[in-house]
Amino acid sequence: MARTGDRPARTPQVLKGMRDLLPQQMVLRQHVIGTFRRVFERYGFEPIETPVLEYLDVLTGKYGEDEKLIYHFQDRGGREVGLRYDLTVPLARFVATHRHELVFPFKRYHIEPVFRADRPQRGRYRQFWQCDVDIVGTASMLADAEVIMVWIDALSAVNMPNFVVHINHRKLLQSMAQVAGVPEAQAATIHRAIDKLAKIGRDGVHAEMVNHGIPPEAADRVLDLVALEGEPAEVLAELRRRLAGNQLAEEGIADLENLFRYLGELNADPAHYQLDLSLARGLDYYTGPVFEAMVKEPNIGSLGGAGRYDHLIGMFLGEDIPATGASLGLERIIDVIQELHLLPQPRTVSEVLVTVFSDEGLEASLSLVSQLRAGEVNAEIYLGERRDLRRQVQYADRKGIPLVAFLGPDEIAAGTVNLRVMASGEQVTVPVSAAAETIDRLLKQERSGDGAAGQ
Ligand code: AMP
After folding, report:
1. What's the average model confidence in pLDDT over 66-77?
2. Residues within 6 Å of ligand 1 by CB
3. CB-based contacts of 230: which residues, under 8 Å, 6+ apart?
4. pTM as predicted
């Protein structure tokens, strides 16, 4: 490539926590997005879009202490604006804006980037994509069960092994705090501390609670309750005994009993969900069941977070509309897919490179590539100016194009094309009229791992 005389003032850089994605990364990404979209649509969720920027006051007052991670600035008209932090708060604003244009219960999916000025680390970016499904306009636990089913199907569809959806209820956490004698104003401290149980252990959480002024006995009582484990029905029965007479506990337990019943009736695989009384979830807006999708290996944090938020829409509308929803983090899921090789990872969308033998042969090559495209084959013609065949094959090899079509003088004279499978080196010569069909067959063989060109 030609050099220009000017040197750039400095090497161009990408902002911390943000990334460029190369074509070979995008191929896998698009595949995963397409898979999620198909699962979401199978349940009747419909797509929407909202702007990346919102008025700042749309975003503030919803996330608790995480609010400090919102990117915000003044736009050129002097308005205070913020980049969306998740897709849930924009959805709540959207429902308030379009209430009369929507059919309720309203089910939407939304797969787009969100922004958080977080400290970048493994699995933690400043721009990342969330894949959300939400159901607005029903308080029925059936909606929460559907959302969990979508997660189970979506994660199964990308071959995610050993994932578990942890399930808890905000009201249970609140009732535990009440029963343990923790003052109302400190309930949020309890949630935040319990959320760290897996990370810092019982002693760490106990210390954190006590540091925040919670009496040590109260902290112990809460920690004893969240440590209960086992079959959901048994744990809920035990909780009903221990939290007897507490109104919030009764509501939370009744919700979870319904939720687990619906999951059973929807045939959810019990290996993929469990009651986890220690799950708190950070965000302030949750009011009911909360969920988190986790994998044991690799240690990458949660793949998805979710829950019911019956008062969030009311913050925009002045009138509550119950809602529940779930958000999968695309980046972490893709990191796991790559690390564990869960899906085939083609490096390119191209299926065949049509080579150009010479100026005289160009017309035949162009005619073939057009014919292949008309036959829905992803076919590219070699565009380099120097046309030695070695260079063309090298191009296909470096890009990872699985097939190369050769049209030399002999093939052109005979009306045939020579197809080479790059992985195995096998070649077949077929009439040009049969090229698309043969390519289809060769690609299927390649993808099934068979590799033999056959005839
Ligand atoms: P949250 O909205 O915080 O409940 O996050 C939902 C999901 O988004 C998480 O389970 C992660 O998979 C993903 N996620 C959250 N924060 C980040 C981040 N900084 N970078 C990448 N993915 C994230």
Report:
1. 97
2. 86, 116, 118, 123-125, 128, 130, 302-305, 327, 329, 331-332
3. none
4. 0.91
